[in-house]
Task: inverse folding
């Protein structure tokens, strides 16, 4: 009986039942390894994707920074030079005058003043001195003028408000040109805007851009300045002239030109388009006929213009050699 209980056949592991029970146990552990591997690949893929996105974002930020920094420098320089070569100079000056208009209207309202402001164009011209022989008024401007019912005290107060506004906007007093005592100029070298302030009743201020002087007119003004100096011994403070105002005389090929001088109209002529200009006179009124009669070239150039005959107290027309009958 003992041999039957401890028979090797009963304890052998090769019995069919035990073998069938072990096989499933061994197989059940095998799927665990494949399940771990997909999880690891997915995690790695996510990490790689995050790293790539971060690198791309850093590169994009660096590119944008590299582009924006030079552009900022360009924009700063544009304020004073390159942008002034574009039509938006008009926009810049007009916008500045609009802001000034708002400031002054607020001030007048605070002071309970009945004075009003009107916009003016080309009535007051800032005067700029660059490389030309004389100072040159800008060829256009935008500005503001008060009504004439203001007091001199209010005019002075408005002037102080304007100067305060200009100073806050980086304008500095411009003293390169000698102007009448009631006029002061302020210049912003960053944006090229030059303003002329006229203290008085009415008060006026006007601004323009220093590029608003053409090269052709500058060349003409330089030649006129030399012609003026040959007669008067020195240059005038400024000359405002334009090639488009050159007129042919009835006495061909003479030409004539009227210009703006400080406090007067300047009269120039030349015997032909290729000749040098001659300064004839500076006047505020119709010239005396005797003045023309004293200059043969002027009589030819200004033939048909009005002159005042002091002997007859009448206005006549200039002719070549004498004066004509009474003008209409």
Result:
């Amino acid at each position: 009986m003992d041999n039957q209980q401890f028979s090797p056949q009963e304890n052998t592991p090769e019995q069919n039942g035990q073998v069938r029970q072990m096989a499933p146990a061994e197989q059940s552990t095998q799927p665990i390894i494949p399940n771990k591997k997909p999880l690891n690949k997915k995690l790695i893929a996510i990490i790689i994707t995050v790293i790539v996105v971060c690198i791309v974002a850093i590169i994009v930020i660096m590119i944008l920074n590299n582009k924006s920094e030079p552009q900022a420098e360009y924009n700063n320089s544009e304020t004073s030079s390159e942008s002034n070569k574009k039509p938006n100079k008009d926009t810049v000056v007009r916008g500045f005058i609009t802001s000034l208009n708002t400031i002054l209207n607020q001030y007048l309202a605070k002071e309970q003043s009945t004075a009003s402001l009107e916009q003016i164009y080309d009535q007051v011209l800032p005067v700029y001195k660059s490389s030309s022989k004389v100072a040159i008024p800008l060829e256009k401007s935008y500005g503001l003028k008060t009504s004439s019912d203001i007091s001199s005290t209010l005019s002075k107060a408005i002037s102080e408000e304007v100067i305060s506004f200009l100073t806050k906007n980086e304008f500095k007093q411009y003293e390169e040109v000698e102007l009448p005592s009631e006029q002061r100029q302020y210049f912003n070298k960053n944006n090229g805007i030059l303003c002329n302030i006229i203290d008085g009743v009415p008060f006026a201020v006007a601004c323009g851009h220093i590029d608003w002087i053409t090269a052709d007119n500058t060349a003409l003004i330089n030649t006129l300045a030399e012609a003026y100096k040959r007669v008067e011994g020195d240059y005038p403070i400024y000359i405002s002239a334009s090639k488009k105002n050159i007129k042919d005389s009835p006495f061909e090929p003479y030409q004539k030109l009227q210009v703006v001088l400080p406090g007067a109209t300047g009269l120039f002529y030349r015997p032909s388009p290729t000749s040098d200009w001659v300064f004839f006179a500076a006047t505020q009124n119709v010239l005396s006929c005797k003045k023309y009669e004293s200059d043969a070239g002027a009589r030819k150039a200004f033939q048909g213009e009005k002159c005042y005959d002091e002997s007859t107290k009448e206005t006549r027309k200039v002719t070549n050699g004498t004066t004509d009958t009474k003008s209409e």
About this structure: Residues 32-78 form the longest helix (47 residues). The chain is about 40% helix and 20% strand. The chain has two domains: 89-209, 215-326. Residues 215-326 form one domain.
